[in-house]
Structure formats: C-alpha cells, structure tokens
C-alpha cells in the first residue's frame, strides 16, 4: 500500500489517537505489510500559526480540517494572543455568520451562527465531549484552541440545533516546560493577572500537568458596571502503559458583576416598530447593585486503550454545573423621543444547571473487498437538569438618554422557575470508506432515545422521541492539499427553551427534525494557508413568540455561501478572513403567526464579514502590528420584520513586541477595540435590544520564566 493510498484510508482520527497512547510501539514494523501503528506521528511542540492543522470536535476528532466534510473554523492560541481575546465573542468574531443575540455580552456571550441560536446548554463542548453551560463567560486563558463545526452535528452530539458546535481545547503540558505570568490592564480600570504553569514528569515524562489561574477586577467602561472574576484549571495526562492513556480536566470559574440592562422593543404602531436612537455606548440603565453572580465547575475524564494494531476504545465521563443568582433589569414602556420610561427589576435566586455526560467509543480500521474502512461505534448518554428558582420584581422610573440611579429593591420572592430534566441516549455508527486513491465515502446512523420533562406550578410537560437519523458525505481528494465534498445530514434537535421574557419561561419545547445539505471545497496553499468555501441549506423548525408564549410556529430555511481563509502569507504576514452571504426565510407558519410567512428570522443578517491581519516588521525583530474589521449586516428585530437594526462595522488595532528581559522572554502588547468608539445596536432577539461596547484599550505584559 503506497503512502497516498494509506492516507486516503487513514485520514481519520485513529493514527493520532494511537500516537498519544504510544509513540514507541511498532515504529519499526515490517515494511512488507504496514500495520496501523506505522502511521504514528510523534508530535512535538505546536507550531505558531493562524491555521491549525487538526481539529478536536465530534466524529472528526484529531483530523486535518481538509478531511472534515463540513465547514469548520479553528482559532489558534496564536490568533487569540495576537488579538488579546478576552471572551467567547472575541474569538468567534473571526468566524463568518457569528452574531450576538438578545444580550449585549457584558455578563456572558449569547450567540447565533447563521441566524440560528447556539444553544447554551448543549452546543458548547470541552475537548470535543463535555457539554459545558454557557451562562457565564467560558474562560480562554486555559484553552489552546477554539473551534466551530458549523451545521448539523446530531449524529455525534445528540439533540443540538444546527447552528454549530463550539469546542474548547485545553492547554496541556508539552515537551517544553511552561511558566508564565501575564498581566492585563484596560483604560477603564480593569486589571487581570494570569499564571500558566506546565510540566512533564515521572518516568519517561509519562505524566503531564498544566495549571492555569486567573484573578481580575472587571471594568469595561459601561456605567455602573464593576465586579470580579476568577479561574482555576488543571489538565492532567498520563501515558500509563504503551497501550493506555488517561486525561483529566478540571476547571472552576466565577464571575460577579453588575449586569447591564436590556432594552425592550417599542410596541409596533400600524405594523411598524420605530426604534429609538442608539444610546451612548457607556449607557447602563441598571444599577450597580443589580448583580450577576455565577460560578461553574467542569470535570472531564477520558481513557484511551489500544486493542492491538487495529482498534482503540475510548471511555469518557464528565459533569458540568453552573449556578447563578441574578438581578435582571429590562427597560420598557418608554418614549422614543424623550427616553422617559420604566425599568423592571427581576430578582432571580437559585438558578442551577447540571449536565452529566458519558460516552464509550471504539474506532477501528480494516479492509473488506478491497475497500479500506475506518469504523466508529459509539454510545452516549446525556442528562441535563435545571433546578427551580425563586423570583420577584419591582419597577422604577428611568431614562434611556439620561440615566438616573435606582434605589435598591428587595421584592418578595416566590417560586417562578420550575425543575426540568432531559435525558438523551444515543447509539451511533460512522464509517469512512476509502474507494481507490482519491475518493472517500462517509456514512453514519444515530439511534436517539430522548425524553424531556419540564414542570410548572400545576402540570408537567413531557416529550419523547425515538428516531434513527442518517448522515452521508462524499469526498474527492485528487491531491493531498485539496478536497471537494458533498454532505447530506438529518438530525433531531430540541426546538428551544422558553426565555425569561415569555409567559412559559423555562418550558422545554418538543423535539423536531432538521435537514442540511452542503457542498464545499477546501485547499491548503503553500502548506500554510487554509481556504474554504461552501454552499449550504438548512431547514429547521421555527420558534416564535405568540401572545407572550414561546412556541414552534412553522419552518425556516437558511441558504448561504460561505468562504474563509487563514494562515501565513509568507514569513511576515498572517491573516484570518471570513464572509457569509445568507438568504434566510420563514417558509411555513401556523394560522396564528401567518404574518411571518416569507419573512427573515429575527436577528439574522444577510451578510457578515471579518478580516484580521498581523504584520511582523522585518526591520525590527519581535515587533508586529495588527488590525481587524468586523461587519454585521442589518437584522430584523422580530419574525414579522416590523423593524430592523442597522448594519454595523467595528475596527480593532494592535501592536505587540516580543523580546528578552533579564534572560527571560517578555511580550508587551496593546489592543484597541472599537477604535472609532461607535454607538450601535449590537444585538436583537426575543423582543430585546443590546448596545455595543465602548472603545477599550488593553495593555498586556507577559513574562516567561
């Protein structure tokens, strides 16, 4: 079997999985009949690049992005460092189609991809597996890479909407010891310190430990906003034997800040929502005592076991828990001209969300009838629980354009949120078949057994689903650095959980089937630039709010063209660019929301664009300048398209200098976000509006010991 043929059949995860189990076994195997472990690669330290060469998400874990028959984007540590990324949206703004939804992002980032909400309890994953809960800023300090696998991912992850999976890859101890101290200050008075320590130890450096710790005082320039944030995380790995490898990830983080108030939509007049003028970007209509106090603990354990040369068995188990107390302020019933209105202050106590996740998986390679197979067999179990909470509210006068201080309120609390539980079990099979030298057929089936129960004061609502959904892709690789693919996917998804603004808040809606088709081309140029382009169509259930009730109200379709480029254009210039043109339409409605037929789903832009580049000055070694521009097209404020928030674009600027100080590595960096200090509506959805953040200068110093 020649190298090219073997690569076609082995383009999946197995060789890299085996490489971390044993870098020494069978390295001198017989050349006459190569064994599975002949493909083992001993991986050294990562190369700094804006274009990672492997992803760690879903059924494509440990694969080259060229071999993934879906649109995927990976933001490397080098890119995140160059941008001085502080939060989730900072990382994902480099990805086409990503927008904020509902909230402005000062407490956490609620996001949509291609106009479809990224579900906060199922679509965010740690190391390709554990569903972490995105109701508090997910830390980046202990992450090596952030990835987005766009579209339907139900075959591997179960009940998730087809917006995409956002995956966080942990930093781990490498061959080179790491000890660094990073301090960051911003122009509003925020201060952060971050310590990162990594070591390998034990016989033959069989064990590795990476510890990250962060503490910060939070200030972002928004009125009445202040607080603190902390992180403690550890990533441990152990090559126990030549055929067994173990990993353990633990992270705990907390954030306690004043929450920025949301702005409700004005009532429609004659079928039109007239928006107020955009307030100053430092505006906060809430109070400094309106706290958002949240904490999260995530734990994930994994074991990989080689069964001879042909099979690897992986076992994973994990748990994620997030709890929060929240004083949530909404501004409503206001006059567009004068800004006079009222705030509703909701005090929410005892919100808690827990995900428990287990997976067992076997990956093997074999030949049948001249075809090479890489077969994945797996079973997964996910239980998601939401505790009940108590709530009370009060109102006070406020003004959109001339905010006043609000006296602290202590309303009587009553039961408002009720417990819910979701159980999602799945069995799946996925086969990558090499047909000759250039073709691969990828096919999979998932059998899902699903049950959800959500309760209110008097009744319980339950849904069940048992269904088999298929996935099939065909890939052509005429040369090693070019792939052309076509994919058809079907998946079950939870259609959503009613938001706090709905009268049925907390209710889990019925599951439904979504469908996706995609054709695309991927290429790697000059061994360092990754290009992707794809045409896609997604059809899924459409949620809407009718008479205050959040419900499924028809179907929507999303057709689009997406393109991206990332990597190094020579020695001195690195770029990451992406764009999407989207045609989204509500294609089917019920009798009670007939006015939405043919309209654009709320908060869905027709185009987004991002471009970021860094230029390293040849004349001054270690000095680099960067700049980025990010554009989001206009978006409808509701499904009836009664109003639109305008398109906006922001600009970022930065510089960094890497040198030596007292024999140690020193990096000095400055990043300026929203450089023009624009006022703009950053988000819409669920009857809410959010304002973009003010201009922010961050200065960072990192010392490597």
Automatic annotation (TrEMBL):
InterPro entries, per database record: Beta-barrel_TonB, Beta-barrel_TonB_sf, Plug_dom, Plug_dom_sf, TonB-dep_rcpt-like, TonB_rcpt_CS, TonB_sidphr_rcpt
The keyword Transmembrane is assigned to this record: yes
The protein, known as: Iron complex outermembrane receptor protein
Organism of provenance: Roseateles asaccharophilus
Localization, UniProt: Cell outer membrane
Signal peptide segment: 1-31
Gene3D superfamilies linked to this entry: TonB-dependent receptor, beta-barrel domain, TonB-dependent receptor, plug domain
Motif (TonB C-terminal box): 688-705
């Amino acid at each position: 079997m020649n190298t090219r043929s073997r690569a076609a059949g082995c383009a999946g995860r197995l060789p890299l999985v085996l490489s971390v189990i044993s870098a020494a076994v069978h390295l001198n195997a017989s050349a006459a009949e190569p064994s599975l472990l002949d493909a083992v690669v001993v991986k050294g330290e990562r190369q700094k690049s804006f274009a990672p060469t492997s992803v760690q998400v879903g059924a494509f874990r440990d694969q080259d992005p060229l071999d993934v028959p879906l649109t995927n984007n990976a933001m490397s540590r080098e890119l995140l460092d160059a941008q001085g990324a502080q939060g989730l949206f900072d990382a994902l703004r480099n990805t086409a189609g990503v927008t904020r939804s509902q909230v402005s992002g000062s407490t956490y980032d609620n996001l949509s991809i291609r106009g479809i909400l990224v579900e906060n309890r199922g679509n965010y994953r740690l190391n390709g597996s554990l569903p972490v809960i995105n109701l508090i800023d997910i830390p980046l300090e202990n992450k090596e890479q952030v990835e987005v696998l766009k579209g339907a991912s139900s075959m591997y992850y179960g009940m998730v909407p087809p917006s995409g999976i956002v995956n966080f890859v942990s930093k781990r101890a490498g061959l080179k010891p790491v000890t660094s101290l990073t301090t960051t200050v911003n122009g509003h008075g925020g201060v952060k310190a971050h310590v990162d320590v990594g070591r390998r130890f034990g016989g033959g450096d069989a064990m590795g430990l990476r510890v990250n710790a962060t503490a910060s005082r939070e200030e972002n320039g928004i009125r009445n906003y202040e607080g603190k944030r902390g992180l403690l995380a550890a990533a441990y790995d152990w090559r126990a034997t030549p055929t067994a490898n173990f990993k353990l990830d633990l992270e705990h983080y907390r954030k306690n800040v004043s929450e920025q108030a949301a702005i409700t939509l004005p009532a429609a007049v004659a079928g039109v929502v007239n928006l107020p003028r955009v307030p100053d970007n430092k505006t906060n209509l809430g109070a400094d005592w309106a706290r958002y106090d949240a904490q999260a603990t995530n734990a994930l354990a994994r074991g990989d076991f080689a069964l001879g040369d042909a099979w690897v068995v992986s076992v994973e188990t994990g748990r994620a828990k997030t709890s929060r107390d929240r004083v949530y302020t909404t501004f409503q019933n206001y006059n567009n001209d004068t800004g006079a209105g009222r705030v509703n202050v909701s005090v929410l106590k005892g919100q808690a969300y827990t995900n428990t996740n287990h997976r067992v998986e076997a990956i093997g390679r074999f030949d049948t009838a001249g075809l090479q197979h890489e077969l994945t067999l797996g079973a997964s179990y996910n239980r998601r629980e939401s505790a009940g909470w108590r709530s009370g509210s009060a109102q006070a006068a406020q003004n959109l354009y001339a905010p006043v201080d609000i006296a602290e309120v202590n309303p009587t609390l009553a039961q408002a949120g009720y417990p819910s539980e979701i159980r999602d079990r799945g069995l799946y099979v996925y086969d990558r078949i090499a047909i000759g030298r250039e073709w691969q057929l990828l096919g999979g089936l998932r059998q899902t057994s699903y049950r959800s129960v959500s309760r209110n004061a008097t009744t319980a609502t339950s849904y069940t689903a048992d269904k088999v959904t298929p996935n099939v892709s065909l890939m052509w690789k005429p040369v090693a650095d070019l792939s052309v693919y076509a994919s058809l996917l079907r998946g079950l998804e939870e259609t959503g959980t009613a938001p706090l603004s709905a009268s049925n808040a907390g209710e889990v809606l019925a599951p439904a089937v979504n469908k996706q088709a995609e054709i695309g081309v991927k290429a790697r140029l000059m061994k360092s630039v990754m290009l992707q382009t794809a045409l896609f169509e997604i059809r899924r259930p459409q949620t809407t709010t009718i008479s205050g009730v959040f419900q499924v109200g028809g179907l929507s379709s999303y057709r689009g063209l997406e393109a991206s480029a990332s990597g190094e254009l020579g020695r001195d210039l690195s770029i990451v660019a992406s764009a999407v043109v989207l045609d989204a339409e509500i294609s089917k409605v019920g009798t009670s929301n007939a006015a939405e037929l043919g309209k654009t789903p709320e908060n869905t832009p027709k185009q987004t664009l991002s471009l970021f580049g860094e230029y390293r000055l040849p004349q001054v070694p270690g000095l680099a300048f960067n700049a980025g521009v990010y554009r989001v097209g206009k978006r409808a404020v509701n499904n009836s398209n009664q109003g639109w928030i305008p398109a906006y674009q922001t600009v970022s600027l930065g510089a960094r200098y890497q040198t030596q100080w007292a024999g140690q590595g020193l990096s000095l960096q400055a990043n300026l976000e929203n450089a023009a200090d624009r006022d703009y509506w950053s988000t819409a959805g669920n009857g809410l509006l959010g304002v973009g953040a003010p201009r922010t200068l961050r200065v960072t110093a990192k010392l490597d010991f």
